[in-house]
Here is the input.
Amino acid sequence: MTPPYQKMNATEILDLYFIENRARLLDIASFLDRIDRYEGAEEAKKDFRYRAFQKALDLARSPGERTVAIQRSLSDPTSEPIASAVGLKAYGAWPGRES
Amino acid sequence: MRAIDPHIHMVSRTTDDYLKLAMGGIHTVAEPAFWAGFDRGSADGFRDYFHSLTVTEPARAERFGIRHYCWIGLNSKEAENLGLAEEVLALLPEFLDRPNVLGIGEVGLNKNSRNEIKVLERQFALAQRRNELLLIHTPHLEDKLKGTRIIMDLILSEPRLRPERVLIDHAEEHTIAEIKENGFWFGLTLYPNSKGSPERAIDAVERFGTERLCINSSADWSVSDPLSILKCANEMRRRGYPQEAIDKVFFDNPRMFMSQCPKFVTG
Here is the structure.
């Protein structure tokens, strides 16, 4: 444990966060396995959210500002207001102009 | 630990949560008016809600030595019904005059629709006329980046609304830089499933600095944690930050922003 008032180095960050992020990684892998295992997997994999998720996984392995890159890849890139919000909800990924 | 939660919906929490806040060192809270989980059917529903924010909740908080402030406004999820919105907007001045009200909030956008923008512009005009502080709700998930930009454009096009008197809340990694560059305060929300974690919030502190930053729980009726700002402060502590830096983020900063309203005094 780093003593108070001393900033950590990268190895100490790895020590502190590795186990909990290993668990998160396995949660994601298990989520993808779950989709594969259930009936209708091929249809689910065509969904815009599944495709956006796969793209985000690629971005997580790319160098640079990974968090910002993933956030942007999941965002509505347009700038015009929509006509009405009635009945609409947020999905977590942008479905595109046709949806 | 001494902390302020600048965004928490205590109307949705138990009295036991007030005790937990007090025991954890959170002796000042601010509660924005928000969507109650259902669309209200009449302006009277809003009147009762604003009454609870300005009378009932301060009394509940006082039992535990907690100062309770609030923000009054019409949230964006109930802005599509323009007729009802007009009736609610007419109620706002009466409640803005009450002693625990810091300004207009949380107001903003949800799905970035034209009616949401109309109602937001009306509330910006009211803020100008009364020189009120503004607490801004930004959209969730895929709508956040677009909505944050629309909101900032609306504010920056009106010279009488000063960015240093506006906090743009629920910021995330992809919106923080633009918010800061435009001179606004920004809020990070700790919300287990759909917003940020303590780890990501402190990563943002390291990436973007502590200036004009407030961290909040936004704890409400959904999956949320009224003690999350204490967990976030502990995240900063376990990375080795000194207590002064932790105090700046969790006490000094929210006090600095909200003290721009002369009604605000910390407990």
Notes: Chain A is about 55% helix and 0% strand. The interface with chain B takes residues 1-8, 13, 16-17, 65, 67-68, 71-72, 74-79, 81-86, 88, 90-94 of chain A (CB under 8 Å).
